[in-house]
What does this fold into?
Amino acid sequence: MTLIPTDLNEVYRYLGFHGITPTPEMTGIIQECLEKLQEVSAPRSFYLYTPLEIIPAGEVSTEEVSAGEAAEASAPEAASVEGASAPLLRFAGMEVRSKGLARNLAGCREVCLLAATIGPGVDLLIRRAQVSAMSRAVIYQAAGAAMIEAYVDGLNEQIRQEAHARGLFLRPRFSPGYGDFSLGHQTDFARVLEMQKTCGITLGSSLLMTPSKSVTAVIGLSDHGTDCREPGCEECAHPCEYRRV
Ligand code: SF4
It folds into this structure.
């Protein structure tokens, strides 16, 4: 069993306990659920580094527009009108049109593509609880969400150390479906990272991942530091042009 260090406060946050102090009894139940999740979790991950090219919106040629939009067109939410005026990003054979991702990756020449999961056992535990003890199912959902984030934070740290050893710094991770980075690119991640083979992750028709507690992300590598905060841009007060929101 691989223990994934998961902050209880994060579980409370996913449960919506804003300003509420859980009773000792509630804390005990949550800890018990967390322990059960640890027992059934089977974390797997895969990541790779690949060069990045960003073509500003005004410099995208007609041919490049066609190629970029062809890739986006496979998405259920195909390229929006706004997307057509977004920069074009190329990495690992993907073509992504996204203002948000382009801003986050500005100045980077390389990205890390990542897929990670805490495994199918977590979903099984949630489904069983849904028929026998709904309140526990809600806790498993919240604790599972905190656990996959904690697992990815650990991977992020490993990637950070690898980057630092090469004199590079990380931007906060950015996932398909975030802002104008189309969820349709999940199919690109599945192909490039061979997610089924490397992590046991499959995509449904709505592009949601199975196991449900899975994450895909792109992380920019830059040769100058930005003092990024681990919790990400949403909780960072640093004045910064790379903010992802
Ligand atoms: S806003 Fe903060 S966390 Fe986000 S890229 Fe800038 S420095 Fe990093």
